[in-house]
Amino acid sequence: MRWIKKLGLFVLTLWAAVTVNFILPRLMPGSPADAAIAKLSQSGPVSNATKKAIEAQLGVPKGSLIAQYGEYLHQVVTLHFGVSYTFYPESVSSLIAGALPYTLILVGVVTVIAFVGGTLLGVLAAWKRGTWVEALPTLGGSFMSAFPYFWTALLLLFFLGYVAHAFPTSGAAGVTDTPAFTGPYVTDVLYHAVLPALTILITSLGGWILGMRNTMINTLGDDYVTFAEANGLKSRTVAVRYAARNAILPNLTSFGLALGGVVGGSLLVESVFGYPGIGYLLLKAVTNQDYPLMQALFLMITVSVLVANFLVDLLYGVLDPRTRK
């Protein structure tokens, strides 16, 4: 019964997210067709036939909202979101398929590394509280968390890119490279991802460290930890199996949100480095009022966050049996 309730709530939330995703772009003033017509009108009046031709070419939604909603649901089920207004005549599906691997390589891998590394350092800092082992990651984490994404990105871009010429300053690969799953191309992609990855790692690592340390310190004062220590268990066993296992739950919730947001990319970082990921694609879609592309990206981001949180909710029951009730 518990699983059925969780699944039902997930489906209901998913439907609500899909519906909101349909409504929001239509609340925005104007349309891509209006922008194209405005540019043409600068050189002279635009006839009604020209307006209709532009709307037909861009595939501007027609009919009542109910009819558009039905067509939209059909697109969601079939994963066919039409043609992008911004990158016409490329389809939305092909654009997302081309940008998603870069985002998963960059943001996904770095998010997992930052979570694992920050959590372990937080556990170590809490267990060794009062020593230099605690002071170093705590102060370092506080210092790194104070820098916003775009500022860190600009610093790395200037010093390591333009001054030292150690890493590329933009793009995901060389201009003359042909995308292929080969050693040289993969190496080049990883080389171009170093600066964006460092930006995300530096700015996010401190949050994981401080969050885990603070929760771990509170957990260490609980009775079951004192009882485990009184029974003569090894310090590593008490720290990992008793204190850290319960202290990790808040961090795990944040990790679920961060992991779901991976699909959305890191908009600021990808914009600064000109990295062709989902975040950069989303910026282009919003700037150009590209309804099909916006809806597909928002839907993908929303579904990924919902799925990640659903899995984390299930994992809670494994780590902490008390949550099963």
UniProtKB/TrEMBL annotation:
Subcellular location(s) per record: Cell membrane; Membrane
Any one of the GO CC terms: plasma membrane
Transmembrane portions of the chain: 99-127, 148-169, 189-210, 255-276, 296-319
InterPro entries (UniProt xref): MetI-like (IPR000515), MetI-like_sf (IPR035906)
A single GO BP: transmembrane transport
Source organism (scientific name): Frondihabitans australicus
Protein name: Peptide/nickel transport system permease protein
PROSITE patterns, A to Z: ABC_TM1
Top-level lineage group: Bacteria
